[in-house]
Amino acid sequence: MPQHYVYRFYAELKDYEPKIWRRFEINGERTMAELGYALMLMFEMQASHLFCIVDNAKESIRSIMKEIYEGIGKEETPEIVSNYESMKNNRYELADEEAVEIIEMLGHERLVEADRVTINREVGGRNWQATMDYDYGDGWEVDLVLEECEKQEISLTLLPRVLEGEGYGIIEDVGGVGGLEEFAKAMKKGKGKAYEEFRGWLGIDHLDMEAFDRDDMNFRLKKLIRVYRDMYEHRLEPTEQSYKLLYREYKERKGSAGTGSASRGWAPPPKA
């Protein structure tokens, strides 16, 4: 069986309590964009907004070099410190020319085309961390930490896969973390004005925000990364079969309520 580098990550929705988190594995041949699609699926993001992944390359190298200098009993020179300050973190994004110009003008980050580089090429080393930003309006952030990278004999049909986690995920267009907290309280209460408003908006009577279904998540990871890639990178509308997967109609057939959007209308993700 062929060997592949398998990366194990810990991911957590930022600033939300109780914590919503995932521990998962993914093969290094995947692109950074596909890493983003996997994160979206694991946190119930429905591929309807822009996203990017920003790493901590600058902070990581600074930390490593500081340890080295402390280990040999020397202090960093002003020139070395200046070199650190001129470094940029990497921003992985599907961006058009206008977005590239804006990011380069701001000068804080180095733009990398997310669909052109692999995890093998971009991720590694001690202290590698990143944050995925999704929906620049609602401002969702998922913190990502590399825990381990190991070469394994493994079938790629098994990857990516979620190992463990807690919590449901986000609700699209609910208004960020604050809106999600209000939604969770309303669903838990099951009555009142806020509950009726959310119920009418989403077309559901109940959603347990603490629910975590690893088997369903792994099923969706195997089926839907390709669909998300087609939506973002090729501007393709999902097929009828893909819609059924996206909105969990397979669960409805088994007698349990789906938890997807009540709307079947789809528009391609906006361009950067």
Written overview of the protein:
Residues 253-266 have low confidence and may be disordered. The chain has 10 helices and 8 strands. The chain is of the alpha+beta class. The protein folds into 2 domains: 3-169 and 212-253, MM3350-like (Structural Genomics Hypothetical 15.5 Kd Protein In mrcA-pckA Intergenic Region, Chain A); 170-208, no CATH class. It starts with a strand and ends in a 19-residue tail after the last helix. A hairpin with a 5-residue loop joins strand 6 and strand 7 (140-153).
Q: What is the assigned CATH homologous superfamily of the largest domain? A: MM3350-like
- Count of helical regions: 10
Compute the gyration radius: what is it?
Answer: 20 Å
Mean pLDDT: 88
CATH topology of the largest domain: Structural Genomics Hypothetical 15.5 Kd Protein In mrcA-pckA Intergenic Region, Chain A
Q: Globular, elongated, flat, extended or rod-shaped: what is the shape?
A: globular
| Series of H and E elements | EEHEHHEHEHEEEHHHHH
Largest sheet: 8 strands, mixed
Strand order of the largest sheet: 5-4-3-6-7-1-2-8
β-strand amount = 15-25%
For the termini, the CA-CA separation is: 40 Å
What is the annotated CATH architecture of the largest domain?
Roll
Helix content: 25-40%
| Strand element count | 8
**Structural class by secondary-structure content:** alpha+beta
Provide the CATH top-level class of the largest domain. Answer: Alpha Beta
How many domains make up the coordinates?
2
Q: Give unreliable regions as ranges.
A: 253-266
